[in-house]
Design brief:
two-stranded antiparallel ribbon; single chain; 2 strands; elongated
Length: 110
C-alpha cells in the first residue's frame, strides 16, 4: 500500500446530488457521510469504519464494503485495492461468569 500523507484539505466540502444515498444499510450511513469522512482526513477503509461504523452492523460489511471502498477510492483518486479490506472483529458482548463455570449450580447469585 502506498504511503499517504495527511494534509488539511484546503478546499471546502462540496455536496453532491446523490449524497443522501444510503450505502451502509445496517448503520444508515450515506454516501455524503463517507465523502465527508474522507474530506475530514480518513484515508483507508478501516479508518472510515472506525470513524463512521460502516461495516459494523449485522452484515459485518458483506453488503457495503465494496461500495464504501469505491467511494473512498473515487474521492482520493486511487484504486480500491490500495485502501485495504475491512478488518473483521468478533462481536463483543457481556458474558455472565457462570458461563465459564464447570457446574452452573456451583455459582451463587446475588
Amino acid at each position: 500500500m502506498r504511503k499517504m500523507i495527511r494534509v488539511a484539505n484546503p478546499e471546502p466540502f462540496v455536496e453532491r446530488e446523490d449524497d443522501d444515498m444510503i450505502i451502509c444499510r445496517c448503520e444508515e450511513i450515506t454516501k455524503g457521510k463517507i465523502r465527508r469522512a474522507v474530506y475530514d482526513g480518513m484515508r483507508t477503509t478501516n479508518e472510515v469504519k472506525r470513524y463512521l461504523r460502516s461495516g459494523m452492523g449485522l452484515c459485518q460489511g458483506q453488503t457495503c464494503q465494496r461500495l464504501v471502498q469505491g467511494i473512498i477510492a473515487s474521492e482520493l483518486k486511487v484504486r480500491p485495492s490500495e485502501l485495504g479490506m475491512i478488518q473483521g472483529r468478533a462481536p463483543v458482548r457481556p458474558v455472565e461468569i457462570r458461563t465459564f463455570s464447570k457446574n452452573v449450580t456451583d455459582v451463587k447469585e446475588d
